[in-house]
Amino acid sequence: MTDATDAQDSPAATAPQVSGTDPGPAEGAAHPAPVPLLEPREGIPPVIADPESLAAAVAAFASGSGPVAVDAERASGYRYGQRAYLVQLRRAGAGTALIDPVACPDLSGLGAALANAEWDLHAATQDLPCLREIGMVPHSLFDTELAGRLAGFPRVGLGAMVENVLGYTLEKGHSAVDWSTRPLPEPWLRYAALDVELLVDLRDALEKELERQGKLEWALEEFDAIASAPPPAPRKDPWRRTSGMHRVRRRRQLAVVRELWTLRDRIARRRDVSPGKVLPDAAIVEAALAVPVNVHALGALPAFGQRAQKRQLDQWQAAIDRARELPEGELPQPGASVAGPPPPRAWADRDPEAAARLSAARAGVNTLAERLHLPQENLITPDTVRRVCWEPPASPDPDAVAEALRGYGARRWQIEHVTPVLTRALQAHAA
Predict the structure, then answer these.
(1) 341 Cβ contact list (under 8 Å, min separation 6)
(2) How far is the C-alpha of 165 from the C-alpha of 145, rounded, in Å?
(3) pTM for the predicted model, two decimal places
């Protein structure tokens, strides 16, 4: 081991401290040069891929102490869906574990063993869906990425946070690899183990910084909201999220997008590959704009001239033909059918007073967010601001505004800070 790893038994003890009296994170302090973190302190653990090894890991983590660092690696862009292909954990008294959820698809026993522990994750909402699929659901958590946002750090990626807060640099080279690869190469496993190596240390440092700024209670409310949130409902009309859809305006063209997207999704699911590898979004939009009448016309489109697409022209044209033959009454309507206010760009024409309310509210929220040293979207979601401004309470007094915010899911700390700002905006531009 190098000198860099000799101090890893207590990395926080030698890390730069985040301190000061300003409302945001301390900046400008003379920090020592960051130290590369090259190896996990106990080495790379073997990948757990059988019931006996999993049972031993469950017992070890159940008997560990303190928070448990949790991370998951997916194969986005390579495989269909967002399933986990590696789960990493670290806890005092148990060390680090790397678990193959393909070989061990039911980790509910591990989840139950950690039911009373706080789970430390970075960008928790990204990993929780795939962890839930394999039976791992936290009862309490600490999100170091969200903590960094609330503390006002300008860069909140794990590598940047570990470097700025703890003084170590993490390798960044394997974040976008195909984690469905088997066996996983040793450099990838090293990278994965290091992702949880200092997560609890980072959590501890951020807790102190949030407490210094008077924001710890805010963070705890946010973490509770994430942990208690129900699984998201299936998205309605997911084909409408095809990249480039803004170019598709006619209903017949929309039907082509829907048919091609649906066929592509079915093929991708069957093959277990990323839908974009079956047919790129750009090809779907190109075909929708052209609405080709036969295979020859389809093959003449640049996106379908590639060898991989030429072999499948018949099935793509069949989907286009289904869209071409649909009766008018079955064609999709333009625009996503979602509840809520219209796009803000349309407000000035449809409701000038609402547009004025929104402009004043946005300005007030922006000023408050700057004063509190946190991003606007973490102070209050833009969608909540739009909804309150589009359909304000009949009597825009503070109690009514607070109740409206509560109805849209705002947390107590958000309501406390944002209510005066929105009340002023609504009262100044009452309908």
Answers:
(1) 347, 354, 386, 387, 389, 390, 391
(2) 12
(3) 0.88
CATH label of the domain that carries residue 356: 1.10.150.80
C-beta atoms surrounding 355 within 10 Å: 19
How many residues in total does the chain contain?
Answer: 431
Examine residue 215 and state whether it is found in any structural domain, yes or no: yes
Neighbours of 414 (CB within 10 A): 21
Q: What is the CATH number of the domain that holds 216?
A: 3.30.420.10
315: containing domain = 238-330
- Asked if 66 and 135 sit in the same domain, the reply is yes
> What distance lies between CA 28 and its chain's CA centroid?
30
Q: State yes or no: pLDDT of 27 exceeds 60.
A: no
Contacts of 326 (CB under 8 A, 6+ apart): 252, 255
Which among 89-103, 293-307, 309-323 has the top mean pLDDT? Answer: 89-103
Instruction: Work out how many domains the chain is built from and give that number.
Output: 3
Are 157 and 205 part of one and the same domain?
A: yes
Type of residue at 416? E
Q: How many distinct helices (H) and strands (E) make up the chain? A: 22, 8
**Whether residue 263 is found in the same domain as residue 291:** yes
What is the spatial distance between Cα 125 and Cα 128, in angstroms, rounded to a whole number? 5
Q: What is the pLDDT of residues 345-401, one digit of tens each?
A: 999 999 999 999 999 999 999 999 999 999 999 999 999 999 999 999 999 999 999
Residues 110 and 189 placed together within one structural domain of the fold = yes
Residues 221 and 281 in one domain: no
Q: What are phi and psi of 213, to 5 degrees?
A: -85, -5
Report whether 107 contacts 136 (CB < 8 A).
yes
